[in-house]
Specification:
The complex is a heterodimer. Chain A is of the alpha/beta class. Chain A has 18 helices and 13 strands. In chain A, helix 9 packs across helix 10. Chain A starts with a helix and ends with a helix. Helices cover about 85% and strands about 0% of the residues of chain B. Chain B is globular and about 80 Å long. The chains are: A alpha/beta, B mainly alpha. Chain A: This is Glycine/betaine ABC transporter ATP-binding protein.
Amino acid sequence: MCAVRNKQSRNGRRNRSEWFGVDPVISVGNLWKVFGSNASQVVASDELKSLSRQELMDRTGAVAAVRGVDFDVAPGEMFVVMGLSGSGKSTLVRCLTRLVEPTAGTIMFEGENILEADAKRLRDLRRNKFSMVFQHFGLLPHRTVADNVGYGLEIRGVPRAKRGERSQEVIDLVGLTGYEKSYPDQLSGGMQQRVGLARALAGDPDVLFFDEPFSALDPLIRRDMQSEVIRLHREVGKTMVFITHDLSEALKLGDRILIMRDGQVVQVGTGDELVGAPADDYVRDFVKDVPRSHVLTLKWIMRPPRPDDELDGPELSPETVVREAVRSVLGADKPVKVVRDGELLGVVADEEILGVVAGEV
Amino acid sequence: MVAVAVPRRQIPRKALIVGGIVLAWLVLWLVFRNVGTLALDASELTPLHRWINSVNDAVGASRNSNPVFLYFFNEIRLVIDEFVTFVQALIAQPSFGRPVPVIGWLGVVAIAGFVSLAVAGWRVALLAVAGFVFLGLQGLWQESMDTLSLTLAAVVIALLFGIPLGIWAGLSDRANRIMTPVLDFMQTMPTFVYLAPLTLFFLIGPASATIATLIYAAPPAIRITAHAIRSVPHNTVEASESLGATRKQTLLKVLLPSARKTIVLGVNQTIMAALSMVTIAALIDAPGLGKTVVKALQTLDVGTAFNAGLAIVVLAIVLDRVTTAATERRSLPRWAFFGGFGVTGVAVYFSYTYLWAAEFPSEVEIGSSIRKGATAVTEWVQDSLPVITNGFKDFVTSVLINPLQALLAESPWFLVALVIVALSFLIGGVRAAVVSAACLGVLVATGLWQDAMITLASTLVATILVMILGVVVGVWMGRSRRADRFIRPILDAGQVMPAFVYLVPILALFSATRFTAIIAAVVFAAPVAIKIIADGIRAVSPATVEASTALGSSSWQTIVKVQLPMARRALTLAANQGLIYVLSMVVVGGLVGAGALGYDVVAGFSQGQLYGKGLAAGVAIVVLGVMLDRLTQAAAKRWTN
């Protein structure tokens, strides 16, 4: 669980309000994707749109994979979309680059509605602005690692020498130095996904999309690759949209997490918001087994000072994760003050801390 | 358990009905025997046959005046003729005023070696050189080169159309939907049947032979290319698209390179199919080894037929090894490439300039010894093994062939038709009954009803033998890895061999009779059936077999109660394919004493006044094929659901 702390200390710098102070890179509005020959009729009818997935299926034979999804992604954010299989998350991420054509809605990317882009503009965007890492890697078996990584540059028309230079850079960046001449089938799954990662980075895109990139890897390799992505996110500072079905992966990586169910958004928020204030029973059930002391911060457990509290104890920030505060709170003989910018927000004493820690056992 | 119990209870009732029908048939057969059998003598013609003859004559007369011929068929024939003649001029026939071809034997051997070296490596190159030299030593250099020329010409044209069509079918669902049934039909159609109509439009000779060959050889290329494009993993294509590749870039950089290995396999299939068909096309006067075999078969000269058959096998092995090895990734060192290129250039120059390198030296020759050896072995076999071979032959003939043929061919036609339609209804419902009735109607119209029934009898016997072999060997292979490893290469080799080649040893063993043709068909069809059944048995989940063993089943019980029932889809597929393969050997069987439709087709090629009858016989074979194919498929559907 040290992995969770790793993310929390990184995340400690920012809080929710920061994601709304800037113009979003991606802004998705009322996005629908319906599969079926009568898809456009479905999205044109408010009545059909209000049906559940199963009812719609029974009545029209159409399958609504994504249903009226809205969200914004801020520049430099690691935005995680989480859902179980069949929740529509993979369709959603494919809609964002129009690998799957959305049925209705808007996708604004840097102020431009991608759904209105023609084929050429869309190719330009894919070549220069987006790139994607796939669950099953999607490598070309007949090309070496270096040629796979350089593929995106090759189709853009970058000359060979320059391509080689840039490929080498990203190969070094993802830790594949020495494997340039290998073929994909000579590499392990984790290494192959590093190639996929390098290929996505080679074009220097603004946004990276990850479609469950580590689901096919075994747990140890998956942990390495998660740390690798966190490192890359810190080093290259790119906006990333990450799809996963694994809650602990979502909590570890995500600045914010969107939970999807049956094609709809259930809740969007930071990890501690999901755990501290689940939107409904579905989310509550989901986060039930998360070690709360690893995720919750003091602001979720503090209480208003009572008259008999002594207010000259130590001070901590409201963003401090509970388990980091355990020692200070239990060690102090007075309640700990939760303070932001000199303002007293509340206090935390032994019983609040023990409530969280004991609740887990 | 319910799923098992329901059909069990149904089968006896249906079996009772079938039994009743057969019993009624037998009784009526005794009463009406030899009445209304629609028999036709070998030289007898119906008005339809005469009419086709007159159409043929009219076409012949207007060949150079009718615009359809002048600007369409004749043009196609001329272009193909030119192309074939050109390839023959290069390696096979005296040309350009020279007494020898442009490239003599030394040059051809060097080119064969070099190409094999470049695409398939040292070992295969050695095999290719040895194989080609062996052809020369057999005294069959020119015949071999004629066969090779026709094969290459047909393959080039087939690939020229086939690969783009395959790519199209691979990319477009609509194109695929249109092409699949056409290809299905081309492949279910007995292969040698379209020789006859082709000669109507393109005359007898190399052009018709090439066209027949490419009709036969193109479907695998189209199919396999489309399959190769389609089976490139979706996520690879998606990854390329997500990087902003255009359709063309995705095709050229992702789809084709990923599909390369499979496409080369398609090329291999095309070459093997072409070689097989080119030898058969000897029936319509295609030059080459096939012609030598046909002539020898007609004079029952087993020695010569064996020698030429051996040459076909050698050619087949070389072509197969080279193209199979070409699927692997390999690169030749630069020095070897240019060295080989230089040596080849010198050899080609010598073979162009000097007679010794142009004409294969006739002093060194082993062909006559092979011929003599084969003849001696044949005579020995015929003298010493008649007890075994004749015993087997007489047994199958009297137990299976004669009764079945008597029943089918000596019953009144309406009785047989009624029985078949009734059985079709039981198997596949109204639709199957209608299809069968229509097919039977056409059979009557061809005027060859009795011949068709005799052929049907032989076909059924051959199919029964194929299924017996298929189940026995297939189950063995499916259950034993070692048996599979040992037998599968033999089956592969059997499938690669051109159909003609089988005839020679079988003819030697059993001389020219119906039985010989049946055995040839069995040998031709069995590998397919065995492989399908073996794969079906192997595909039965090991967990189920293990569970059965754990319950204490004996091997026999496991086979009969678990593996065969679970592999029934494979069994029906094997029966269907077995039938189709058997039927496509009918014409070849006509060469070795099968009589009936096969003989009618063969005779139609060689005698002008029988042309119409031969064509009608071809149609009858196709109709039999369609009917049996539909019926087995309907049976398969019913049985597997």
